[in-house]
Every structure is written in structure tokens, then in C-alpha cells.
Amino acid sequence: MGAAYSLHRQHEVTLFEESQALGGHAHTVEVTREGRTVPVDIGFLIYHPWVYPNLSALFRKLGVETQPLRPGLELSIHFQGGHWRTGRDSAFWESVRHEVDRFQLAVPELVSNPKKYMPLTVEQYLDQEGYSEDFKHKVMAPLLSVLFVTRIGLLQMSMFMVAATFGPVSGYSMDGPTPWRTVKQGSREYVRRLSASFASSVRTGCGVRSIRRERDGVTVTSADGGVHRFDQVVLATEAGTALKLLEDPSSDEAVLLGEVEYEPASIVLHTDPRVMPEDRSLWAAYTYVTPEARGPFTRAHYNYYLPALQDWVGEDLFATCNPPEGLIDPAKVVKTMRWQHLVCDGMHPVRSAELHRIQGKRRTYFCGEYVGFISGHEMAFTSGLAVGRALGGEFPFEDSEFARRSFYDLAVHHMKVVKPEDAPVEGAPTWWPPPMARVQSEVLRGLVEDEVRRRMRAVLPLPEVLRPLEQAVAGTVAGRVSLYDELRKQKKQST
């Protein structure tokens, strides 16, 4: 939708959607209870205006009403033998409080040194610094599951990228609620307003069967057997789906799309309180429950307590991700959705940084959360805007410096679909937003250059006077080396 929104004023656009409605994870369900029908979200539920700059700009532009979570986003984590809840003391919390304080005091150092901490995984850092297994598996991993909505690969994420989410904007906190917002009357409100301007170009309930790319255009065969001819194609699907649709994928497409990992997720909307702790005072907006006593936890389910997120819901209503079989009374199920959640492990930012190798090739562009350097709704939307801009569309929020800086950071430095000379010249650096994509790009390139220099010196050591030449050669070679390919080789050699 982001790409279509950017393009529809200057270009003829056709949007194919397999589902009966647009939105993907922005999915609102109407629930009737005691004669009253209310809209309830079970996918995209909340956003943080500090870290969702382009979605925030969209909401303002479209007049979408939002409201704060009161008292904020609170967490409640439960495992065999203990629990912790933001803003509450417990025996377990007292046992790890010193580690929580220690970690939060370390965050400024972690985010100020990306070259040191970006290559380091969360698990490597915590082990290296002597944090306990309890802190690692019962505090950090469940907390990250809130952000990335998965149980897989959380501790393999970049320590720098994770630390950035604990920064001064209070995106996430271990010891208190944080200021998030939700869309009034459900996310369908923004989907409806966003798509209104190109509604005549949308074909819902009509998926795509195959995509054939030719020298003079692209042929799309839809699921109903229709054959459609276009100048360019934009795939806004999961990576694996995009790969399957291409009749003749290149070797780069096969690797960069085929190796993106997802975790299957069953999301159940229901009214059964058995998914929650028996003590109601421990219920929170996000409640994580596992029967296991020691991590890493593999049997956890997590619950969104919807009245705490969208207060118009009223009575108890839950959205539970991956509940154990038999836990929820079938008579209390309202709806079940089956989705795929991106696994944002340590390889993800490196892999996604190399997707520029396939962007725009053979009249084909890719967008979605897997395209960004970190997962989430903001990245999915903004990557679509970036593809639209690359194809000659407009960036619709030029009047918002916050959104504009974030957008061009992603489009120029990470996705590389917009040339630096085509981006507006910014004024003095600002405190916010941080240029995360540019920082990551520079760090990754620096790592490659360091490795190239190391190998050069092992073969042919140069005197100090020739070090500038060495630097120039290393920079040229690094520009042609795929860090992702190198890491894949190392991974294969180690297994």
C-alpha cells in the first residue's frame, strides 16, 4: 500500500490482494458482545510516535485519530517458579534487579559504539559481560518477543540494534510502562483512508499465480487466470512468497529471498481467561506465559490483553499467539488467523542490506518488513514508499523533517533505491531521528574493509608510507565483496 500511495498520482497502478481486504497484519475484527459490536485489532495494535515516523506522518496527513495507552505498555512475564511485571516487585525481580539496572546503565555506551556492538549478538554480549541465565532468558528474551513478535532468533540479534530500542525515547523498558499509542476504532481506519485514493485500482480476493519478466515488460498471471501486462512489478509479500511467484528467479534472488526465515504464528482472538495468570492483578497489556522453569523457552505463548490496549473493547478479550493445544475453549474462540512472523536474527540486517542487488533488476522491486534493517510495521510501510519513490512517485511527507530524514536514511543508505544526489540536502544534524541505516551501512562496510586489509597484510605487508594505497585498495575491494556471502560461507564451514 505504501508503494501504491506514492505512485498512484503519477502512474497507473494495479494492486492485487489475495485476501478479501487490504491491510495484512493491520487486521480489524468486529466482535459482538452483549448486543454491542466493537472493532478489535489482532495484528498491528500499537505504535510509538518516536520510532514510527512515517506511519505517524501518515496518520496526521489522513486525519487518523489515535490515543495513548493508559498507563502505557506494561509487561507481565510468567514461568514455572516465578514471574515479573513492570512496576511491581516480586521475589524473582529482586533477584535480577541489579542486572536490570546494570544493563540499562550500559545502554548509552552500547548505542554510542556501533562498530563494536553491531557485530556482537545479544547473547554474546550478555555472556561476555557475565549476565545470568535468568536475566538472559527470563527478562531479555521475553522482552524482545514484545518487539519482534517471535520466539526465534531473539538473542542472536545485534546488540547495538537492540540497545537502540531502549534509548532515550523509552521504546521499551524493563521496569516501567512506556508511552505507546493505538488507532481509534482499529487499524482498519487508517487502511481505509490510505487506500481510498487508489481504491479503483485495487483487486481484493485476487492473488497472483506467476510473474514472467521480459525485456519490454512484465506479465502477471492472476489466480483467476487473467493475464496482465505491466511496465514494472512491485512484490509486497513475504520473501518466500515473492520468490515462488517469479518464474525465473536469478541466483541472487534465490539466495536473498529464499533464506529469509519466518516463524509460523497462530493468533487466536477469544474470551477464555485460562491463558492468563490466575492472579488478575498480574494481568498486563502483554502477558508472556510458559510452563518451563529454565530457558531458552520453546513452549511459551503470549497474550495481548485487549482492554488494556484498546479501551473501547470493554470486557475481557484476548489475542493469544501460539497457544498450546487444548488451552483455549473452542466455544470461546472468536477468530483464528495464521500468519508468518519474520525472524530478525543476526543475519537479517546483513542480508537485508544486500537486497539492493536485486532491487530494480529486470523491472522488479521488493518491499515489506524483511527489506528493512529491523522488522515491524514502520519498515514495511516505509520500504513501500521507498520503492514508489524509486519508480518516480512522490514522498508524501516532505513537510515533516522527522519522517523525511528517516525515509531517506532507509531509501538511500539501506535499500539504495534512491541515489544520494536525489535526496534533499539536509541541514545540521539533529538529535532525532538517528541515521540508523547510514550507521549500519558504514559499520558493515568498515568490517569488510578491515577483513580485506587483514588478508592483504597476511599476503603482502606494506610499509607505513604505503598505507594510504592499502586503504584505497581495501575500499575498492570491499565495495565488491558481499558480506552476507562471506558469512554464509563461514557458517557452512563451521557446521
Cα radius of gyration in angstroms: 23 Å
Q: For the largest sheet, list the strands in their spatial order.
A: 6-5-14-15-16-13-17
> What portion of the residues fall into strands of 2 or more residues?
15-25%
Q: What coarse outline follows from CA principal-axis ratios?
A: globular
The CATH architecture of the domain at 68-178 and 262-342 can be named as: Alpha-Beta Complex
The rounded distance between the terminal residues' Cα atoms is 41 Å
Helix content: 25-40%
Structural class by secondary-structure content: alpha+beta
The chain-level mean pLDDT equals 91
The residue ranges in which pLDDT falls below 50 over 5 or more consecutive positions are none
| CATH topology (level 3) name of the domain at 68-178 and 262-342 | Polyamine Oxidase, Chain A, domain 2
Largest sheet: 7 strands, mixed
How many helical elements? Answer: 17
| Strands, count | 18
CATH class of the domain at 68-178 and 262-342: Alpha Beta
